[in-house]
Amino acid sequence: MERINVQQWREANGKDIALEYIMVSYTGEQFASNKDKESLHAIGQRAALAAGLRAYWISCSCLGPVTEQEENVWRISDVIKGAFQVVITVAGPVGVEEMGILPTELLSQWGDRVWTLPELLLSPEGDIETYTLNRSLD
Predict the structure, then answer these.
(1) What's the pLDDT band for 133 if we cut at 50, 70, 90?
(2) Rounded CA gap, 71 and 87, in Å?
(3) If we measure between CA atoms, which residue out of 137, 134, 109, 133 comes closest to residue 28?
(4) pLDDT of residue 94
(5) Which regions of the chain does DSSP assign to beta strands (E)?
(6) Are strands 22-25 and 129-131 parallel, antiparallel or unpaired?
(7) pLDDT at 136 > cutoff 70
(8) Cα–Cα distance between 44 and 133 in angstroms, integer?
(9) Please, are residues 44 and 58 in contact by the beta-carbon 8 Å criterion?
């Protein structure tokens, strides 16, 4: 999957054609390093392909600089509302239970974020799937 500049895509395909995408939701607490962010992209690709889509959106790569924080609040709301599906992503490899971390604890940590409620309320109707790097949580 290739990285798409939305402005260039619109110029090539027309502004009236919507690009469907998966919005990947995560907590920076669980995905802090550059390697973690690579993992987020792997999950975004997997989720997009599973939904039959060509695109996904992740805030760590798609938001503007922190100096645009006020604009980013509105931007995120629009991104959530425009998504084909929201996918919750938690950090936890297969066998997290063996490390003493339950998947429910990972989800609880995700749920403590400021954006959790708006993401759930603004997300499109339908199932919200939850992913880890190696598998989908049931």
Answers:
(1) low
(2) 23
(3) 109
(4) 47
(5) 22-25, 56-58, 85-89, 129-131
(6) unpaired
(7) no
(8) 10
(9) yes
Could you tell me the two tokens for 77? 């709301």
Q: Is the dihedral of CA 136, 120, 3, 37 positive or negative?
A: negative
Tokens of 16: 């009236």
Beta bridge partners of 24: 58, 87
Report pLDDT digits (tens) over 73-104: 778 888 889 999 999 888 865 445 555 666 77
pLDDT digit string, tens, across residues 20-65: 999 999 988 888 888 888 888 999 999 999 999 989 999 888 776 6
The 10 Å Cβ neighbour count of residue 21 is 23
Query: In angstroms, what CA-CA distances link 94 with 90, 110, 124?
Result: 12, 18, 29
**Phi then psi dihedrals of residue 61, to 5 deg:** -115, -20
Residue 70's pLDDT is what? Answer: 67
Cα 56 to the center of its chain, rounded Å = 7
Query: Euclidean distance between the first and final Cα of the chain, in Å?
Result: 26
64 CB-near residues (< 8 Å, 6+ apart): 71, 72, 75
